[in-house]
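Cast an eye over this sequence plus tokens and walk me through the fold:

***
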Amino acid sequence: MTYRALDSYSVIDYLRATPSLANVLDLKTPMHAREVGDGNLNLVFIVESETGGQSVVVKQALPYLRVAGESWPLTRERMRFETQALIKHNELAPGLAPQVYHYDEEMSLVVMENLSALEVMRRPLVARKRFPNFADHISTFLARTLFFTSDFHLTGVEKKEMQAKFINPHLCKIQEDFVFTNPFMESPENRWNPLLDAEVQAVRRNSALKLALAEMKMSYMTHAEALIHSDLHTGSIMANEEMTKVIDPEFAFFGPMGFDVGAVLENLVLNYLSHFAHTPDAEARRDYQAYLLSLVRDIWTQFTAKFDALWVENNCGELMPAKYWEYPGGDAAFVEFRRRTLAHILHDVAGHGGAKMLRRMMGIVSVWDITSIADLEQRAVAERLAIRIGSRWVMERNSIQGVDDLIGIVREEAELSEE
């Protein structure tokens, strides 16, 4: 079938002409579709049977960057990477990603499970909603997807063969430019609150910070540690009180583990900062901000415990096989190697998380938590804090000893702003 961009009418015709979907959707009954994509890249449709009970999501890649328009061409192959990643995520972390029902390479689309019973997390976090299972679920997702695609578990051949399937140069280029480079220099797509002009220019002239950001970009481009989602913010996670699902892994490739963990934690910090405007009641604000920082702590603590346990139970990779540690004192050395590895990941969490925090303040794409603050003065309070915290996370990353050091930076800067 020749590629064509679908709309809310033609998507129904497409589904009716796909017999393999008959087990999840009655293709003969009336259906209706609505386009719900508010992302930067793709068309997304929810298609439901008018008799109720059956529905799917159809996601189709456009041949350009949607946020920038047709003047910014982009390969449609990203839908293959997303589908491969979803299948792998379901294999490694069952129940924590949407099920894939159908993939069409020519049409650059995937048909998957409808998650309408869940919410994209970003807006409910602004509304101060709590997700009691989130720390457990997302730490499980991170630990399992990162460990089982790393050299700690796979043979060298297995890892390289999997890595070859996720060479994702065009979307990597977007992250390389829009996360690590363009926000920190003159580039026509950059946007920021005009009240931040002085802060933006100060970041661009800060040599120590820019050297650190260059090192983080080098990490992103050269440290192929595991299959990472590479865009794991709170807009790529759907949840309710019982369930959590990770969506939108079209940026997936083999990169540094700390990038994914850092993205989750930095988005929680940005939400924390947004409540200085969104929650004027001081007591309610402090209570919810404490909850958000407890999530940061719990996610990291549970991630490290789960990752370490998986490593001990499944030490079959060729990086350092089990026999390597079979000597008097080897057990203690293996414990130390695992400790050093997790310390390295935490340093990357700080560096990559800080870089992403900064780029949201002065690059092409911000976050709704912040941009939904209508008053530019109030918005600038959160944004200036994000710049200071992000800068410190990046520059102080190698001295971070534990997650409480990251949280401490957030608290220190927040307290200074309230004095």
